[in-house]
Amino acid sequence: MKLGSIRYLTKEGVRNIWANRLMSLASIGVLVACMVIMGLAVLISENVNVAIGNLEEQNVVMVYMKDYNWALYGREEAEDTASSTEGDTTSATESGTANTTDDTNGTNVESTPTDEAEKVDENGIKDSDYIIHDEKEAKALCAEIDKLDNVASVVYVSSEEGLESIKESMLEGQEEYFTFLDDENPMSCAAKVTMKDMAKFDETIKQIKKLSGVERIVSQGDLANTINAIKQGVGVAGFWIIAILMIISLVIVSNTIRVTMYNRKLEISIMKAVGATDAFVRIPFIVEGMIIGLISAVISEVLLYFCYRVATETIIGTLGTTDIVKYSDMALILFVLFAGIGILAGVLGSAIMIGKYLKREGSEFAAI
Amino acid sequence: MENVQQFTAVKPIIEFRGVSKTYLTGTHALEDVNIKINNGEFVFVVGSSGAGKNTFMKLIMREEKANTGKIVVNGFDLTNMKRKDVPMLRRTMGIVFQDFRLIPNMTVFDNVAFAMHVVGADGRDIRKEVSKALAKVGLGHKARALPNQLSGGEQQRVGLARALVNSPDLIIADEPTGNVDPNMSYEIVSLLTEINKRGTTILMVTHDHNLVRDFHHRVIMLDSGKIIADNVGGDI
Fold it and tell me: To which H or E segment does residue B170 belong?
């Protein structure tokens, strides 16, 4: 097709919009409404993701290690529990808190073969009673955890830092509870682990458990599941909102083109009679659909900007939170989404309608 | 029918061989039609309503396909013609409609230019050829007028200019005098005769027997889907 023809057909497309301005305006109005709702769905989804991201960062997993303190305090505690429960064959590490996950490593102090020549210290602990002997070995285990795919970060926490952290988390006056320790520190050293994707939480926990030297893992499994559920819910809702509104957009543009087409039956019949190809007949309608889509995209972008600004100012004013996605970060993505949907709806809507008309209804000779 | 034989030495522009057309409704529109129209002829097609004139024209334009037989128009074999090739066939012919079919919000000039835009002509050619076509039909001075500012006869002359502007070999006129007064009818057929003298084949459907008698062109008469007369010289 020649450049002159393309220019002429584009002009015709623009002329169509003006000739059917009321219908075009109605289509633009409905498309804008659809696009603004779509944009809001995207922005809400993005904000929920940011909030979940913050929660994920806070959802720290503590991996306690089998170090000297564990051999000294944890093992004794486990032995006490075991002896007080007849017939109970659970391992020493399974006697943790409600939030403590099981140790499946199989390293049982009682079952560890002892070396007769091995020295026993003043507390009755042998070297073979524990796996992590010093900070170097603890950091090596941290490095091993860090190598796992879903691990975002690992921070080594010494037993002193661990105790300090617990004391700090206590309310004023509750420090007294620790006086019974008499300067002893029963905390094992630990690794503070954060994960990249909470959906792989259980799988990652299993991988960590398999590492040698891991005693127990303290986590908030319920929180991880809740986060996953929210994430999935927002994702699914967002998808359906966008899909349904896209179909509505397509129907709206198709109807506008249909009206334009019937208004231009005369022109189409003359075009066909004098030898216009189907493409020549189609192009002005496609241009019309595309322009309606693009105009709607621009209006939606501007409108959404103001709506979002008002909404965020209100949220910041009432909740005081500043963890809100900036519109400028999303502006380009939203415009591409709007323009893409607008153009797609325009092109598809007009192509379907005009194709149907040309094949089944268009007559070149019969009276109109 | 013997009159047809004398044109066989000249190359036919339209040829029907054993053509029949039955619509899905069961209507037999044409039955075993055999006809040749040669290059440069002026032919009137007459017949009462339902005789098959419309179907005859639609088959020539390839708006309808024959059920049986072979049709050749302007060198195009329409029997197995693909849909995408139909525009090429139509570019070799000009159509004049009974109801003028002018686009009301376009000027006379733009209505004629429209037919050239469709075939992808460039702007300079369009300006030149449209002016020439309007001058031929005597409407050069009305180029900027809108169709509703013209009389019926003038509107039909604009339709004629549109049919002429791409210099077709064949003009199909579907009752071009049906919506104009008798004086204007003579003017339009005179104009078509002038165009025919320059070598363009004219195929004109009409109900006006006076015109057929007065202009002495070949007459094809249809009745119930069959050709019942084919006379050169305007005798019905």
Answer: strand B170-174
